[in-house]
Amino acid sequence: MKDVMNHAKTPDGPAIRSPEAFAGMLRKHDMDLPVEESMAELRKPLRIGGKTIPNRICIQPLEGYDSRSDGSPSDLVYRRYRRFARSGAGLVWFESAAVADDGKSNPRQMMLTPGRVSDFGSLLGEMDSICQDQFGFRQYKVLQLTHSGRVSRGTDWAPKPLAARALETDPDETVPASDERIFRLIEETISHAVMAEEAGFDAVDIKACHGYFLSEMLSAFDRKGEFGGSFENRTKALLKIVDGIRARVGDSLTLTVRLNAYDSAPYPKGWGLREDGNVLILDLTEPVKLCGILRDRGVRMIDISASQPRQHLFGTADEATEPFADARDLLMAVKEIKKQVPGVSFVCSGLSQFRQFGPAIGAGGIRDGWFDLAGFGRQALAYPEFAREALAGRIPDSDRCCVLCNSCFRLMYPGLSAAGCVVKDPDPYASFYRRNVPGKENGK
Ligand SMILES: Cc1cc2nc3c(=O)[nH]c(=O)nc-3n(C[C@H](O)[C@H](O)[C@H](O)COP(=O)(O)O)c2cc1C
Ligand code: SF4
Questions:
Q1: pLDDT tens, 128-145?
Q2: Are 84 and 382 contacting, i.e. CB atoms less than 8 angstroms apart?
């Protein structure tokens, strides 16, 4: 079976060719994942906040470290979003855009500024005309707003951490943000949402995942003052932003949140997980409670992720006996949250892991009520047309699928280069990789 799995995950000669065979393989491993062979569920439009998402495929936020120094779209940004417009996906969730100069994770991070709002309008307009010409619909577009918190960097790439709470392991220069700084961050995020609405985005996402500032706030259990300790205090900044945006723009902009179901560390370092002896236990009590409050405050869509979407929750998964366990954990989490929080639409994360069968799992999850939209990250960098194929009821071409090598992450994390798919979109990213990624990572 190990061989079969390896074939299914490599681009050359996959042994498992049909979703039925794939579903059979999952069953043999007692992997209870939904598979919908026709993928018809993906074609169903979804109404959100008075607008229509034309189909259920979501391209997840994928930052490229390649905006201009003022945060506006560069040629590479245009290139990426034109590719997404040609994909046929109904929802494009734009990458993280900083809400403050001291909240950029890299000097080339996307950011709206008052003089440059129309540059984003032009990009959105071009995407609309590509998509209208090719598919006859307009994509729904969300902009992710964030402060990078602990991983913020200055224009010279020097670390400029803004922590939400103190950790024992923190170096001396890491000082937790004051309450006053957090109040300012709330205002900054609200004013960036107003600019996003002017630019023509349909929705904004107040990012609360992957350990960035608002995500870290959620586990500020031992922080003193207005924003730490109790559940009410730890969620206060996020909820004030939600209320503030609603008060400024009414219903003309839809509100969404990308939220960690669980962090990579258990309570009290993280949220959504606790430790019992040496065993990590998923504990969705607080994530579920927060999702219910967000819904009641008018948030229409929640995109569920985790601190490390590719990390198996309970130790290292054995690919031979438990294939896809990491992605499965994340799908089970969104299923559980959705079950407990009706009345809001959920997006799942991590479907690239299933390569050409990701869309069939996405369609199965929608059919069985696990989530409402199927979210794909790396697959969209590697092979944006996978969406078009799946929407036509065809299994995407396995030779063109993301091979899960994570070279795109390697490009951005050292801060060396713009990020994209090195393997399936080699011009220009393979040359960036050869030039910028050092030594053995690069086979040199
Ligand atoms: C190059 C790259 C950039 C990313 N940028 C963002 C981002 O800006 N915001 C975000 O929430 N997630 C970001 N992610 C995470 C993805 O949205 C997604 O959750 C992750 O890749 C797992 O999904 P997948 O298995 O479908 O790729 C990024 C991932 C990659 C590979
Ligand atoms: S670089 Fe690797 S992991 Fe990233 S999108 Fe391309 S094939 Fe996938």
A1: 999 999 999 999 999 999
A2: no
